[in-house]
Specification:
binds N-carbamoyl-L-aspartate; Rossmann fold; five-stranded parallel β-sheet; 647 residues; six-stranded mixed β-sheet
Length: 647
């Protein structure tokens, strides 16, 4: 008997695209074998344990059937309420023990990140059969397998995801996979059930991918007017958006496309803290949705079980493929186990590229912000654990919970030996990385918390002024001049400033543009790290739509470029601008993402360890220059020196 290698499948991203392709070709073989009633003995002597802390029909039974069909056997705890978990046993203890009875554990659990925890404690491989609202990777394998069978390929397909995109774990795994396969996603969430930010951030960071969201209302006429929507993944567009060579206006219009699939989902009532939320209108998908000219070749998918969102009248339609998805459960899960067996000789899997784990001392570690995170339930053996999130996300350090993926924005960081705390800024990132490596990072929500813990504020090194008030005014004038020369129709323009200094600059630019052209473009402020309500008008209470306008995004300095990229993606999610331009007061030369500003106030090459700081006085419409405006540069070498001298 061969043993299975310790290959845990916690996320769909634990499988490379090549590995998924291999699993699909194995699944093809097993379909054939099942059709011919062949006897297979591949898993002879192997035992699979299915531990289900939540109800299941398809997933558990198809896993068990797959193992039997492979010649293996199964031990099962289909209702963990009948197990020692009911007596308060931790997940870690349970999987340690069960891992000594079986060669493979298949786990379903209500808490986000439970499969990750199980994979760390089980001596055998763990397959995630759904963990809270986080992921359900093997459902995605079934979904993609059938979708590809129907359409011949996955790249370039356009898939509309409908319904509860917030709690639906099958949707989350599917998004990660479709992004990597280069398919186009259109999100059609029920109101209040949008794809969560942590999912969007993850596809953005890992696959440089984002997608459009349309409302249920738009969805009703979607099939007939698809050409009006941006259906291609916006990532390649975003990269090109701000380069001088390819302003968005010159990009070819998205080619009229057809919808290839609707993926309809059930409302995940059991995951809603607010049970009242279920009273709203939910998607109801019936034959009418397939009538439009652009939808008549679309297949209809559903992970099942269905409730009222999917009409029974569709069942006899050849485009309805949800029962095929469910039937694929057996050959695809057979293929997954067979694929593991193919690697039986390889004990340790080379780690897939990922973000570094942040080692935080217990006393300096924050809690995961997600109330359903497994780290909140399992007790003291499970310390909160984070990975470094998107690098250089503005003036917050983004940490991502290593169990559930939820992001935590940290404003204050400290060094445990020097006992200094710092307001995080992008230029500190290289130090923070080192502190993480050596386990000397502390994080705080507030100054008060830092000071209570006995930390003192860090005082930074000497500053040199590189622009005075006069020079700042000239640079803003120059920005206004460039924008006016470049944008012939100012009545279509809208300025959006990144909070806070970008927003102040946007207001100044607006005044200068008005003085030059007589047109006063609307102006909004964008908070790149806020959730809802992130974009608000600066002129009045009314919402300004970006639809059809040329948006000029305004910021003071580009450091890594991540903030601007995030702001762009947010604008993209909000509306359908006709074009986007980027105006920055200071271009300092180097950045992590390939974004080039269209309008630059001044170029100031600085070294990576230097921080450019822009100070702007609050706007006063009468003054041309503001005496206290200035730009300074200071070196960030000191924090590390301090750490060294404290040793
Ligand atoms: C899904 C699940 O459990 O996440 N079911 C399944 O495994 N096919 C979807 C659901 O319960 O809605």
């Amino acid at each position: 008997m061969t043993r299975l290698p310790k290959y845990d499948i916690v996320s769909i991203d634990d499988l490379s695209l090549r590995e998924i392709e291999r699993i699909f070709s194995l699944a093809d073989r097993f379909c054939e074998a099942l059709r011919n009633a062949e006897r297979i003995t591949l898993a002879d002597g192997l035992i699979m344990a299915t531990l289900f802390y939540e109800p299941s029909t398809r997933t558990r039974l198809s896993f068990e059937s797959a193992m039997h069909r492979l010649g293996g056997s199964v031990i099962s705890s289909p209702d963990m309420r009948a197990s020692s978990a009911a007596k308060g046993e931790t997940l870690a203890d349970t999987v340690r023990v069960v891992g000594s009875y079986a060669d493979l554990i298949v786990l379903r659990h209500p808490h986000d990140g439970a499969a990750r925890v199980a994979s760390q404690y089980a001596p055998c491989p763990v397959i995630n059969a759904g963990d809270g609202s986080r992921e359900h990777p093997t459902q995605t394998l079934c979904d993609l397998y059938i979708l590809r069978k129907k359409k011949g390929h996955l790249r370039g397909l356009t898939v509309a995801l409908c319904g509860d995109l917030k709690y639906g774990r099958t949707v989350h795994s599917l998004i990660y996979a479709l992004a990597r396969f280069g398919a186009n996603i259109v999100a059609v969430p029920t109101a209040g059930m949008d794809v969560p930010d942590y999912v969007l951030d993850r596809v953005r960071a890992e696959s440089n991918y984002s997608f459009s969201t349309v409302s249920m209302e738009e969805m009703k006429s979607l099939a007939g007017r698809l050409d009006a929507l941006y259906l291609t993944p916006s990532a390649p567009h975003q990269m090109a958006l701000f380069t001088a060579e390819m302003p968005i206006e010159k990009l070819p219009a998205p080619a009229p496309k057809a919808l290839d699939a609707f993926y309809v989902t059930r409302m995940q009532k059991e995951r809603m803290a607010d049970k009242g939320a279920e009273s709203g209108e939910y998607v109801r998908f019936d034959a009418r949705a397939l009538k439009g000219s652009r939808a008549h070749e679309a297949v209809v998918m559903h992970p099942l079980p269905r409730t009222s969102e999917l009409a029974y009248e569709l069942d006899s339609d050849p485009r309805a493929i949800y029962f095929e998805q469910a039937a694929a459960g057996v050959p695809v899960r057979m293929a997954l186990v067979a694929w593991m067996l193919e690697h039986a000789a390889v004990a340790e899997r080379p780690p897939l590229p990922g973000l570094p784990v942040v080692r935080l001392r217990a006393e300096a570690a924050p809690r995961c912000p997600n109330a359903n995170c497994v780290s909140r339930f399992e007790g003291s053996y499970l310390a909160p654990r984070f990975r470094l999130g998107r690098s250089g996300a503005g003036n917050v350090l983004m940490l991502r919970c290593d169990y559930c993926d939820r992001e935590l924005a940290v404003e204050f960081v400290g060094h445990v030996r020097t006992r200094r705390y710092y307001r995080f800024e992008e230029n500190l990132l290289s130090y923070v990385r080192e502190w993480i490596e050596e386990g000397s990072l502390a994080v705080f929500d507030t100054v008060k918390q830092a000071e209570e813990a006995g930390y003192e504020p860090y005082r930074r090194g000497p500053q040199r002024e590189i622009m005075n008030a006069e020079q700042v005014a000239e640079a803003v004038e120059s920005l206004a001049g460039q924008a006016v020369a470049d944008l012939p129709d100012m009545s279509r323009v809208m300025l959006v400033g990144v909070i806070s200094r970008g927003a102040m600059l946007a207001m100044r630019l607006r005044d200068l543009i008005e003085a030059r052209t007589g047109v006063r473009p609307p102006c909004a402020a964008l908070d790149a790290y806020a959730g809802a309500d992130a974009i608000r008008a600066l002129d009045g209470p009314e919402e300004i739509s970006t639809d059809g306008r040329v948006v000029v995004l305004v910021d003071d300095v580009i450091n890594s470029g991540w903030t601007v990229q995030r702001a762009m993606a947010m604008l993209w999610e909000k509306g359908r601008p006709a074009g986007m331009k980027l105006a920055v007061l200071i271009d300092r030369g180097h950045r992590a993402v390939p974004i080039r500003p269209n309008y630059v106030g001044k170029n100031i090459p600085t070294s990576r360890s230097e921080r450019v700081q822009v100070r702007l006085e609050m706007p006063d419409p009468k003054a041309r220059t503001r005496a206290r405006d200035r730009v300074t540069v200071y070196s960030m070498v000191e924090p590390m020196k301090e750490a060294e001298s404290a040793e």
